[in-house]
Design goal:
Pathway: Carbohydrate biosynthesis. One of its GO terms (molecular function) is fructose 1,6-bisphosphate 1-phosphatase activity. Its EC number is 3.1.3.11. It is found in: Cytoplasm. By secondary structure, the protein is of the alpha+beta class. The protein folds into two domains: 191 residues, 2-Layer Sandwich (Fructose-1,6-Bisphosphatase, Chain A, domain 1), CATH 3.30.540; 129 residues, 3-Layer(aba) Sandwich (D-Maltodextrin-Binding Protein, domain 2). The mean pLDDT is 95. The relative contact order is 0.13. It is globular, with a radius of gyration of 20 Å. A hairpin with a 4-residue loop joins β9 and β10. The chain is built from seven helices and 17 strands. The chain binds 2,5-anhydro-1,6-di-O-phosphono-D-glucitol and manganese (II) ion (2 copies). 2,5-anhydro-1,6-di-O-phosphono-D-glucitol (AHG) binds next to β5.
């Protein structure tokens, strides 16, 4: 049986689904960068890549060496190909301008270069999350600096999103807006091979993921819902629930795409000015696009995440995503 590599899948998409050739090229380049990141991640202490840089990113988080290495790999891989008008990353204060010596293209690439990096030193799965937008015409110009407002589009405008997970296997999960495909890196071949044809999130679940140590800071609807989950068979939901929290969004979302579940990082009272911990552009939007394309749902408790009009690049958001029934239940509690 011939194997379908990512390249072949993308070429077939170009033919059958009108996926533009430069979008295909963009995804290929991102996938190549992810292979390189996977290589660095897997070296660990042997490659001298563990530990911190001694610097902080714009959100005041300690940068790990691998956060910076991964960010640089993605920038270098994507800046020269002529398919992008600009890039934005969790690890950079401002949007990245395509250097003047390179041609510019019509797309914007947004990424979290290494998600879950606090786990890197303990050898737990981490990943790269990315999202692709079209650069609005009014911002397309060959000479001028790209205005950051070009990026501030709701998640519904994404033309592609995906993540690579660096776990026991390195996988690439991708949506072009017509379902979700999973590719596994074949290290001997050096290619991502299609292994998961049609990824679907089961509608119901008996598993949830939330950082319980923040319980005392949660808002009432989330407290109520988690109390009901914990009450199990004898509670109002009449079912026992199991809990998992990896603290790598890629790994938690990957589990949900594989066997269902509910993921929550709600807004809490620790930092009242911030509506959550996770970032809308780099984490919530791409993951919500993937989850919806797999038949799941994603809200901030009040509205669909993909409908939120971003106000700033590094905006935070409360996230509730996964199996539809459970997302709908906890979202309804917010509205009561
Ligand atoms: P990042 O490593 O990109 O900063 O993201 C970490 C995120 C996310 O991956 C995870 O779900 C969450 O932070 C875990 O947060 P807690 O440590 O508060 O549980
Ligand atoms: Mn992250
Ligand atoms: Mn990160």
């Amino acid at each position: 049986m011939s194997r379908v590599t990512l390249s072949r899948y993308l070429i077939e998409q170009t033919r059958s689904n009108n996926t533009p050739a430069d979008l295909r090229f963009l995804i290929e380049v991102v996938a190549r960068a992810c292979k390189e990141i996977s290589h660095h991640v897997s070296k660990g202490a042997l490659g001298g890549v563990l530990g911190s840089m001694g610097t902080e990113n714009v959100q005041g988080e300690v940068q790990k060496k691998l956060d910076v290495i991964s960010n640089d790999i993605l920038l270098e891989a994507n800046e020269w190909g002529g398919h992008l008008a600009g890039m934005a990353s969790e690890e950079m204060d401002n949007a990245y301008q395509i250097p003047g010596r390179y041609p510019k293209g019509a797309y914007l690439l947004v990424f979290d270069p290494l998600d879950g990096s606090s786990n890197i030193d303990v050898n737990v799965s981490v990943g790269t999350i990315f999202s692709v937008l079209r650069c609005p015409n009014e911002y397309l110009s060959q000479n001028e600096t790209l205005n950051e407002n070009a990026f501030l589009q709701p998640g519904t405008e994404q033309v592609a999103a995906g993540y690579a997970i660096y776990g026991p296997q390195t996988m690439l999960i991708l949506t072009l807006g017509n379902g979700v495909k999973g590719f596994t890196l074949d290290r001997e071949l050096g290619s991502f091979v299609l292994t998961h044809e049609n990824i679907c999130v089961p509608e119901t679940t008996a598993e949830f993921a939330i950082n319980m140590s923040n319980q005392r800071h949660w808002e009432a609807p989330v407290k109520r819902y988690v109390d009901e989950l914990l009450a199990g068979e004898t509670g109002p939901l009449q079912k026992n629930y199991n809990m998992r929290w990896i603290a790598s969004m890629v790994a938690d979302v990957h589990r949900i795409l594989t066997r269902g579940g509910l993921f929550m990082y709600p807004r809490d009272a620790r930092e009242p000015s911030k509506p959550g911990k996770l970032r809308l552009m780099y984490e919530a939007n791409p993951m919500s696009f993937i989850i919806e394309q797999a038949g799941g749902a994603s809200t901030n408790g009040y509205e669909r995440i993909l409908d939120i009009k971003p106000e700033s690049l590094h905006q935070r958001v409360s996230v509730i995503l996964g199996s539809k029934q459970e997302v709908e239940r906890v979202t309804a509690y917010h509205k009561e």
